[in-house]
Every structure is written in C-alpha cells, then in structure tokens.
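Cont'd.
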Amino acid sequence: MNPAAVYIIAVCALGGVIACGAFIWAALKGEFTDASEAALLVFDDEDRAAGAPSEERA
Amino acid sequence: MSAAAVYLDSPPPEVALAERVAADQSARRPVLLFFHSAVVWLVVGSVFGLVASLKFQFPDMLTGSAALAFGRIRTVHLNAVAYGWAGMSLIGLAVWMIPRLVRAPLYRPGLAVAAAWGWNLWLVLGLSAVLAGWTDGLEWLEIPYPIDAIVVVAGGLMAISVLMTVARRKTKHFYVSVWYVLAAMVWFPIIFATANLPIFGGVEQGAVNWWYGHNALGLFITPLALAGAYYFIPKVLGRPIQSYSLSLVGFWALAFFYSLNGIHHLIGGPLPAWLITTSITASVMMVIPVAATAVNFHTTMVGRFSTLKYSPTLRFVVAGSMIYTAVSLQGSVEALRGFNRVVHFTHYTVGHAHLGVYGFASLILFGCLYFIVPRLVDWEWPSDRLIRWHFWLALGGISIYVIALCTAGWLQGRAMLDASRPFMDSVELTKPYLVARSVGGALMLVANAIFAWHYWLVVRRRGKERMEPVWSAPGALA
Amino acid sequence: MNKYRVIFLGAVATVLFAFFVLVFVPHLQLLSVEPPPGLKAYADSELAGRQVYVSLGCLYCHSQQVRTPSFGSDAARGWGRPSYPEDYVYDAPHQLGTMRTGPDLMNIGGRQPSRAWHYAHLYQPRAMTPGSLMPAFRFLFTVKDQAGMGDEIVDLPPGVAPPGKVVVALPGARVLVNYLLALKHDYPAGPAAAGAAGGSQ
C-alpha cells in the first residue's frame, strides 16, 4: 500500500478516536447544551457613558 | 433577560456598569489605532490596485523603472488591502468586541497598541522592500521573511492581549463571536510563522504556500468577519441569534473543512492526486458550515429586512453576509475538476478572490465600523448622504468587477482549452472585460475614498453635532 | 461553549491536522523524489536570472506547470510533457503560478531558443506579439548612441527603438534570458522515467 496512505489512515484513526473522546467529554461537561442565554450577551452593554441610548433605534 | 444566569459572579448593577465602562475604555486606544491605520491602508491599497488594473489597458504606462513594474504594484496592492486594510480593521473589531463579550477589560492594552505600531512598521518596511525588488517570491507571502519577524512579534503581542482577556472572562458562556476571535488568534500566528520559514522548496513549498494562502482567508479573515456579523446582526435588530446549534456546527465545520481547502489552488498541478482530491472534497464540504451560517443569519433577520432601509450597519453587514454565502458556494463549484479545468489560471479566480475580500469581508467591516467609531469618539457620522454613496458605489463597483472578471475568466479558459485557437485569442477576448474591471475598481476606490473622508470627519468631530445617529429617522437612507 | 480549553485546543488541533494532511504527509511521499538525471542544477548566471524573474513578479501572469492532456490543451499547444515533482527540485521559491495571462513557461527555453527574440520581447512585447498585455521591461535595457565592446544589441523591428539609437541589454536582462533559456524540461520524468529505470535493473 502507498506509504503515504498508511500514515494518513493511522493518524486519522488516532485523531478520530481522540476527537470522539474530546467530543463526548465536552458534551458530558455541558459544552453543547443549548446556551440561549449566551445569545443575550450582545445586549448587555452600554455603548456610551451610563444612561445614553445603546442601540440604533427603529 | 436574566443577567444572573450568564455571569460567573453577579455584581450589583453599579459595579457591573463600571465594569462595562472599564471594558470599553480599555480597548479604545488600540482599536482606534488599528482602525486609523486600516483606513489609510485601504486607500493606499486601492490606489495601487487601480494602477495595476490600468496597466492592462495601458501596458506601456509606468514602465520606466522596476519599482513600477506590474508584478510589484500588484503585490503591494494585495498585501496592503489584505493585511493592511482587512487584517488591521478585523483585529480592531476583535479587540473592541472581546472586552464587551467577556465582561473583562482588555489585558494590557499597551501590548495591543505596540502590536498596531509593529503591524504598520512591518507593512511599510515589507512593501518598500517589495518595490525595491526584495521579495520571498510566494503569493500572499511576498514580504521578506526577516521583515516578517516584526509582525510575528507584533501579532504575538496582540494574541497575548486578546487571549489573556478571554482567559480572564467574567461570563459563564462564550458568545459565538468569541469562539471565532479566539480561534483566529490561534490560527493566524501558526500558519503565518510556519509558511514563512525558509526551509521549503519545490512542489512541497507549493503545498505550504497554498495551505497558508487559503487559510489566511479561511482561518483569519473569514472567522473575524463572521464574528462581526454574528455580533452586529442580532445587536442592531435587538433580537438574539436564532440557533445555538447552528452556530456550533458552523464553527467546527469551518475549522475542520476550511483548513483543508488550500491545495485547490493547484488542481491539475504536479502534486499527488490524493492531496488534490482531499482539498477538492474539503472545498465542497464547505457547503455545510456556510449553509449553517446562512440559515442562522436568515432566520434571525426574517421579518426584519425593513431595518436595512435605515441602518447602515445592518445594510453593510447583511450584504456582506449574503455575499459570504454566494462566494463560498462559488468557491465550492470552482473546486470541482470539471469547472476548474476551465477557470484555473484565468481571471475568474481574481474575480472570486475580490468577491470574498471586498464583497464579503470588507462590506461587513464597513458595517461594523459605522457602528463602532461613533462610540469610540463620541461623535456621530455627520452625513447620511456620504454613507449612501459609499454603500451603492461599493456594491456597484464590486458587482461590475466580479461579473466582468468571472465572465472573462470563463471565456478565457474555454479559449485556452481549445488548441485550435491561438493563445492570443484568450488574451484578446478578455480586453473589454478588463476595461470593465478598471471601471469597477475605480468605483470601489471612490467608495473607499468617500468612506475614508467621512471617517476623517467623524474622528476629527467635524460636521454638525448630533444627539442621535444620522440615520435614526425612518426613510432617511435611500 | 464555555470552556476556553475546548476552543483553544480544538483550533490548534484542526490547523495542525490540516498541516499534517496537506504538507507533512506529502513531504514524506516526496522524500523519495530524486533529481532526474536529465535536469541540471541552475548555473550561477541562470540563478541570478531566476532572481530577476522572481523580483519582477513574472509569476503573476505566467505559470510553470504543464498539465496532462486530459486536463488541458498544454501538450497540443507545444508547451511540453506534463510536469512532475522532480522537475522542481532546484526551485526555491517555487514559481508554479496561478495565472496564464501569458503562456506557461516551463519549457520556454526549448520552445523559443532565440536569445534575440527574448531580448526584443522583453524590451517591447508588442513588437514581437501584437496585442500582448505584457509590460515593457525597458529598465532592463539601456539606450546608447552606439554599442560598446561586448554589448548585446537588441534586434528590434523598425520604429521600435528610439530613432538613431541602439538598445543594449543590461546585466539584468542578460541573466534573465539565461534563466528563460534554461527552462527546458524535456528529459524523461514521471511514470515514463520510472518505468525505464525499473526496466534497466
């Protein structure tokens, strides 16, 4: 077999195992639970000195 | 909105406010420095671009010295707009967004300021070297590698500042823009430093060249521009980004597939076939992250498209995001062997590249700057007319440019494939389209100059003082 | 996501994986590439000419990679046999190119062996190829009232040189043409050469 293929397949297999493991670990740690609160982060800031309007208005 | 759920600690409101103001103030100086520099490079780069384009209409123009040769003028154009305009404004954007999104002040802003000066020094020295004939001879990597050491240091300082800010975050979650910024700050130093090492040669260097070249777009310009779009679309609409899952898919699929695209620049070339096929496959798989992002943006925008009438930020950012979808799908098609066989080596590639860096990244950047700059200098943009002109000239310019070059490229490629037609046929038929290209490029230059002029007015606080954004009246913008 | 490590390490992993697949593994595969017997290393004056080629950015209009007949019309245009990795062992920086505003130059030395043609073409491309978009590299030459000892005069069609003067090649033009004439990859390479080598053992 093409020596390049051996390297690629071996590393990909190893990488795939590590990636799956990392994915499972992260999922169990709640990394991928729907964090819709995170989406609200863009609204929490004041753009000027306190009290000034922060967003372009409709 | 429940702030308590998001914050690691829940300080009393006046402390939280003080933290937010501190976060903003910490980033102000470096962000302005990056933006000022970027706007200058935009104008410089655009001028060099137009000169290069006009040399196709007047090939005997400016042929008196090597410094004015097309090969050098073109190189200065590419590096000035890609690293000077896009690179610096994207970094400025990242430095502005991060402290807000992680609720922590910028770590050692002095590092970021030094980084901005270093980045400018790198470009000035590097592009002077190129004009004088000292070049590394590789596309996107022309600046001589000893001079590159300056930006490796500057970029390193920048990355430290941003990464340490993120590490000291006060939020429980990372917003999606933070993922993209963090990743880009990791990716760019790695690819840049590796590709500039003077240890490669032959076809292997070709592979390194384009692993780098495509990733400068895919792992640096694209993630930072997307970070801006993910921030401003919801921010201006007042409506959160629609889907967290799609954001996740979009991010990781981009990271995995985009990084493998590079060798599609060498399809048909003297490299192992499996290598080329891998990049073609990855290029087609890009449909996944691009679709995820497109659906996410669209479902966030849906029902609110009327906001484009009066928000320049949204107008530019949404136009740029739509072009992102289009240019990425174009790229996936371009990578297919049957299509590539025709358009490789032609002006089609140049059209595609400009659609990406100008139509996608630059339009988004303009939108972001329209929002950010008033908040940094505490002065509104004086003229809604200048904004309108900027938008339509930019959009018109890039449209003419891309349609001209993609048409030319297709016809050029077909003529080249037909051995019964002399090679000069493929050159002659492109000429009218190259004129259109100069027209499109001139329109973009005018658009950029208008923006630069307006930028100067606002940072110098010229024009009448306004208490509200210039576009706040419905229908104010055409 | 809320873990810094996940994003940081994930980003590092993806870019290094791409480097592994796109650069490292091909590197291992290319280790076995030997300089072909028919390909000589560049002579000093050819290398100097290559530097001129690189510094003027000829790459931005010319490629140096001949495609197989199934992929392009290169062979039918007389541009040579398909190019292989071993053809580039002496090339750093590579000049593979991504544009063909002008023709491929991988075998230009074989296709156009006339020194005089190259000088004239570099001085004023449109004098040799009407309609050409190539820049006129006038600064590679000097204009004199009469040629001196050892000067290489550029043989131009009537009306191209300034009236009453001769155009003489400067050192930059001379070494550049040395390089262009050295671009001749007609020796066996690729599967044909491997087959021949295998057969002789």
